[in-house]
Protein 1
Amino acid sequence: MTAAIYLVKGREKSLRRRHPWIFSRGIQKVEGKPGLGETVDIYAANGEWIARGAYSPNSQIRARVWTFKKKEQIDVDFFVSRLQDAKTLREILAQRDGLTGYRLIAAESDGLPGITIDKYDNYLVCQLLSAGADAQRDNLVAALNIVFPECHIYERSDVSVRKKEGLKERTGVLHGDTPPKSVVIEENGVKISVDIIGGHKTGFYLDQRDSREAAVKYVDGKRVLNCFCYTGGFGLYALKGNAAEVINVDVSQPALDTARHNAELNGFDTSKAEFLNADVFKLLREYRERGERFDVVIMDPPKFAESKAQLNGACRGYKDINMLAMQILKPGGTLLTYSCSGLMDGNLFQKIIADAALDAHRQVQFIERFEQAADHPIDSAYPEGFYLKGFACYVK
Ligand code: SAH
């Protein structure tokens, strides 16, 4: 018999709105002895069946909903159906934006809590973040084989959040061949080499695609500084947009080497590009003192806030780099700035930019807003899926 969770009275409300999380304090009793990630039936306090989900005994989020349909069992067919839904949307986007790489499954936002899958050409890269996701590995792989018979499958679950779920980090081939060092994808006419095994996350930051394309219209003939460039990203689009000069900065030498390779791969004029191994915080101060000035500064840092406790420190970090960026912009320059910290909402980020403007003694006007790319959709029942924000700022 399937184990069961009974909720505290009233705690079923968020589930009726199709939100997929059940917190430990919302649970009145657990029947049976569900193990790590085991499927459980979820009942309201009055005994009404509400949903079926995965049990996470070690996490504050004690269960995550797989389905709100009583007849739906959590088996290969279930995963096939979810994957097919997700594939349908992605095929529309792939056609629209010329993509051979995209996020296929954005976890909760695609009805598969704890599961992220990115598709790079014929390689599917899975990240399983929750106990439920981990327990369903075999069903998921079987379903992927049915929906994408041509694809190889690799796991990159080397992420520390798995600890909260009582899981160890894990990587390796799940089906087919080991990914080569370089899998080339294309987006918006730009080619990008992705290192699935050695790169950050699953290999590439697909979520910034729309912002990268939007950057093209700000760079024609301009001197561009691309901070936190990773494997080229915005810098490649700046070259596509006919920038006069692009300085790409990162602390990762392998990322910088790939960035240069990517510029060559696209046949861009690499004499216009520099690939600098430096700490952005230090470099911007040096530029400010030396009087180096730019027309466009791109500021796409890693996530500064992993938890609520880190949010204040993160705010200081964002304010500092954005202030520095404004100070090295020529009058009338453009700052393209982003935050991928989900804990920081758009209003707070806008306020930080406002504070940075005061400290930089510059007047700033917001002229465009950005969000995560469309293959990272936000489900209406799960607003937490919105995490990436950005602004184009006109800096006087
Ligand atoms: N803009 C990129 C993604 C950036 S990810 C794109 O479009 O693909 C963040 C990058 O910041 C990583 O490559 C990481 O190596 C780099 N990084 C982290 N701290 C840094 C620092 N202090 N100075 C420079 N780069 C840093």
Protein 2
Amino acid sequence: MHGPIEQELDELYRELILDHYRRPRNTDLLPDAQHKAEGFNPFCGDQVNLQVMVDAGGTIEAVGHQGKGCSISQASASMLTEILKGKSLEEARATSDAFRRLLRGEEVEESELNALGDVGALQGVRRFPIRIKCALLPWTTMEEALEQGKQG
Ligand code: ZN
């Protein structure tokens, strides 16, 4: 799956993205997770199936992902499962918001960029507007999962 986008990305970022694509993290299904959603990007054919498991204190305990699609969407999903572990739901939404701004070329605080960790490697995608949907798919799916699993 080496398309033009991978050639254009900075080498360091490219390696990290392809590493997550080839060896995705946290691919076990979490049937007991409180928050679940499936996302689809018709422009690229990307599929994302996310489960978010939250402990009694409201901290994200684990995120599971199964999906298929391009390297950008699947690497983004893998990175998401790692970075959200240990965060509160509020922090998860804030991380998603910071990533969206990063891809749109809007202002992102240095502390926010640090909090994004590996996810920051996807910032080169902003030069390919059509692929921004690929990178954001897991994040919009995660936001939907949190909405749908809301109590009360
Ligand atoms: Zn894609």
